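Here we describe the complex-level prediction in full. Unlike the single-chain runs in Section 2.1, the two entities below were treated as one system.
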Amino acid sequence: MSTVLLLLGAGLARGAVFALFALALVLIWRATRIANFAQGAMAVTAAYVAYLVLIGTGSFPLAVVVVLLAGAGIGVGVERGLMRYLPTASPLNAIIVAIGVVMVLTGLLGILFGADYKPISVPFSREPITVGSLAIVSPYTLFVFVVIAVVVAGIGLLFTRTSLGLAMRASAFDEEVARLNGVRVVRMRTLGWMLSSAVGGLAVLLAVPTELGLNPHSGDLLFVNAFTVAIIGGLDSPVGAVVAGLGVGVLLTIVTTLWGATVGPIAILLLLVLVLLLRPQGLFSLRKARLA
Amino acid sequence: MTGTRDVSTASAAPAPVRPRRPHWLLTPSSWTPLQRWGVTALGLVLALGATFLLDPYRNYLLAVGTAYLCAIAGLSLLVGRTGQLSLGHAAFMAAGAYAFAFTSNALADESVPSLVHLYAPFLVAIVVAAALGAVVGIAGARLHGPYLAGLTLALVLALPALTSLMSDVFGGDAGLYVSVERRPEWLSQLIADEQWQAWVGLGAAALVLGVLAQLVRSPYAIRMQAVRDDESAARLSGIDPRATRVTMFGISAATAGLGGGVLAYVTQAASPGAYSLSFSLFLLVAVVIGGVGTLAGAVWGAVVLVLVPELTSSITEALPLPAELSQRLDGNLAIVVFGVILVVVMLVAPRGINGAVGSLVGRLRRRRP
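The structure predicted for the assembly as a whole is:
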């Protein structure tokens, strides 16, 4: 019983991180129709900035703030510096440039910090709280849940309750009509990159102490996992990303507990193949955007 | 008086000179299939001869480069002609390399003719990689753009997990030692081992380039282009987009498998570390640098892919750096350089070296009176 609860807790915590990262992917996809393959590397770079602040000041809350700022800054840099000047001849170009960004960032991180894993200490215990004789969930996991819930709720409110969110949705839905109605589409696109990149950075920082470990290549597998989550949820659907994220997190935790951590990437590959064969538009997508 | 134009000048004008047609060798688009094979064979003979001018280490680099070329050429057509972006072609090279290793090691224990021991592993490498490519291609046949890219990315990341999970089969992180058939007796007096490896690689590359050159000029190429540009229109014209995509994916995986086989033959090893995500992305960089969708571009890409890491590692060795820093620079510097090249080429010259050379030649021709 206790093991099941622990597994469920760990799986949901893992899934919450996937959900947050997948949400970042969905944000950019909705805003620009670009699947940001550089998201992992950008987020890990932001996490390294936060790591520097953390060893400098020792303050974890400050590191959280810094990772959001650094993520937003990197997002603006990539959008304003590169993505804006893409040749529009082929939709593949955005992916190829993003791959270039991945290589530059991971290479630079490797040169600056080396390949070894950097420790990040958190002001929360990672030992599970026990209620009676049942070990349930560690304070750090609880903290991750709360932060992610707040961020997801904030994004939800932003898009559904504010005029800024309405403008962002409008420019994503139909650029031309939005522009005719006075929405500054270009600015909305930059905002989308900022928001998404900041959220991605936060996801990596939260996952580093328990799940990832900080390494230049930490983002690779996280990206593939979150990409799978986003596909399962339907790339268009933020709700889908959150639900699928939690589900995949629990599933992956069960699989790796049963057969060892090395099975993880293979399980994700099989899951992705299965979803793409059976329901390529995702579970929550309304439109058939993927064909033709 | 309107009709009294002097008509005599027209008849006195010299008979129009028919523009001299350039030699057929200079117009590759009009070659017949037989002429294309002839040119391929000629190129192969010239390249084989050129290996006598190289020292053993450069011949080794040439052999490695031809292995890359096999994979790059297939990937280039896949990206450029059917619009399918694969980030995981290193996985197909790995499939070819391991298939080569298993076959070659099994044949080494048997008393088979040396020709069989030399060629059969390559054949198996092609078949196995093509089969894996067909499976992945079927999963990705309805997909394009980010979906296929994500799927192939997941594939190449699952590779090290698979080899360490089944380490008694694949030899874990260390990989497998490959026992290969050496050069024939009568050649051993004439050429060194590295030169023979370059010959084997050049043969494989000529085969790949020859077959793909036929493919590019065949009616099938037009189908691929139709599928890339507008799937609905292609379907209305009676083209099956899924079959076209799966076929091209299978072909491109087969060439990558042959490349992996050559690499296994040359390095006598098949290990997961040689086919990492970084290497897989390098293949894409080579495709883009050379010029997406062109075979000449693939050759440029292979050259760059061999030379840049050589250059960066010789730079790091030449600089007086502390050991730790030079260890960090080793490998990572090449990744950064390739990343910068990829971004710059994409934004500045999306048609790559081949496109730049083409427009330069065109400009020179037009300037000539």
